[in-house]
Design brief:
- It is a multi-pass membrane protein.
- The protein is of the alpha/beta class.
- It is built from 16 helices and ten strands.
- A six-stranded parallel sheet has the order 3-2-1-4-5-7, with helices on both faces. Strands 6-10 form a two-stranded parallel ribbon. The protein has a two-stranded parallel ribbon with strand order 8-9.
- α6 crosses α7 and α6 packs parallel to α9.
- It is globular and about 90 Å long.
Length: 418
């Protein structure tokens, strides 16, 4: 495919561009960085990174690029780090926590923006979720309005942002509260009071994550007028299908955590509703669609693009026991509009995905990338057989005890005296 990069419209769009990315230290962000640098060759990727757990932004970027995810890129482009620039900041802070000098530099240079920074914890406090998911979005939009060479902005939302609806179309829906109103509540109410009234504020929304994502979309609709901006709504992002390495994964949220728990024997039962469809999408295909959206947004400017895309088991029940109908006409139209080379480089055609093989590979990904080192498969299989035998023995004892109990009831004849 290397020889066809010159004919890829998407590669040509990003080549030599200055790209701003938020959420670059998250799973999706890492894959965006890797794909852009390896395939699209932008001039520079600016990463807004905050200090976290006593690690400054430079240390966090170093740790990030030492991941196995970047091994292929290092072989093909040993100096790729020269095209990554850290911008110290924090999207939860007013003004994104950026210095005046960095703001001025971004205004002058940036042409494409991907806003994927978010807290995705289902049980996050409303205060924290608001500051990151809503204030962060409004901060990015205000920064984009000042950019002198802006061509495209993509806001990464979620397919479940309006999950109280059973059919979710590729359009804006009424926000449950104004973005600024929610920020004012988070800024002015005590954490204790806000936590106490959170159920009343989020109403039909199952958790603070999907609620604040819905409000963030309203910020895009209302505050993003005049910008070349799109929204992408991925569903449940799973392991990578093939790029840059098959089955890669580095987080344990949602169903990945459930599957990992099953894999290590900590979980044996998962609740699913009857006839419920799991809306899973490979991480690398999500990135491919995201980059295609960024390209298409620059062409159409006002494209509204939505993709159909555990702390505890109860947090996941809502999504595993309900089914939604997601409209994907725009996504499929975008796919059909790509030329053959772009379809090879930026594959997000879900019809070609073999789910059985993909989900089987997810187990390998959990074993390889969520553990410090690879485990011996022989040991893993032996451990599984032991757990299976213990389960069967327990079932036999339980069944035998039940039979004995019933036998005692129906064979004991009372001694009645007349």
């Amino acid at each position: 495919m290397e020889s066809h990069k010159d004919t890829s419209e998407i590669c040509e769009f990003y080549r030599g561009k200055h790209v701003l990315l938020t959420g670059g230290t998250g799973m999706l962000g890492k894959l965006v960085i890797e794909k852009l640098l390896r395939v699209c060759k932008p001039a520079m990727i600016y990463l807004i990174i905050r200090t976290k757990k006593f690690k400054d932004p430079h240390r966090r970027l170093k740790d990030l690029t030492e991941s196995s995810l970047f091994h292929r890129l290092k072989k093909e482009d040993p100096v790729f780090m020269e095209r990554l620039k850290i911008v110290p900041g924090d999207v939860s802070e007013p003004g994104l926590g950026l210095s005046p000098a960095d703001v001025e530099h971004l205004i002058e240079k940036v042409q494409v923006v991907f806003h994927s920074a978010a807290t995705v914890k289902f049980d996050e406090t409303l205060s924290t979720a608001t500051k990151i998911n809503v204030r962060g979005t409004m901060g990015i939009i205000e920064l984009c309005k000042k950019m002198k060479n802006l061509e495209s902005v993509v806001h990464v939302s979620t397919a479940y942002s309006h999950s109280p609806r059973k059919e979710i179309r590729e359009e804006f829906y009424e926000s449950p509260i104004s973005p600024q109103g929610l920020i004012d509540l988070a800024d002015n109410l005590s954490p204790q009071l806000l936590n106490a009234i959170t159920p009343h504020i989020i109403g039909e929304w199952i958790n603070t994550y999907v609620f604040t994502k819905a409000v963030a979309e309203e910020a895009v609709r209302k505050n993003g007028l005049g910008l070349p901006i799109s929204i992408m709504r991925p569903a449940i992002i799973f392991t990578a299908r093939s790029e840059p390495i098959p089955n890669w994964i580095d987080q344990t949220y949602g169903p990945i955590g459930v599957l990992a728990g099953y894999y290590v024997g900590a979980t044996r039962v998962v609740k699913f509703g009857n006839n419920v469809r799991a809306d899973l999408i490979p991480a690398d295909m999500t990135v491919n669609c995201l980059l295609a959206v960024g390209h298409q947004t620059a062409k159409l400017r006002y494209l509204k693009m939505y993709n159909k895309i555990h702390h505890g088991m109860d947090l996941f029940d809502y999504f595993s026991q309900n089914t939604w109908r997601f409209s994907i006409e725009n996504t499929m139209g975008l796919w059909r509009s790509l030329n053959d080379e772009d379809k090879q480089f930026f594959d997000f055609d879900m019809e070609s995905l073999v789910y059985k093989s993909f989900l089987k590979g997810t187990i390998d990904g959990i074993r390889m990338y969520l553990k410090d080192e690879e485990e011996d498969l022989t040991y893993i299989k032996r451990r599984y057989r032991i757990i299976k035998v213990i389960d069967r023995i327990a079932r036999i004892f339980l069944f035998s005890g039940l039979i004995w109990f019933l036998w005692r009831i129906f064979t004991t004849v009372p001694d009645y005296k007349i």
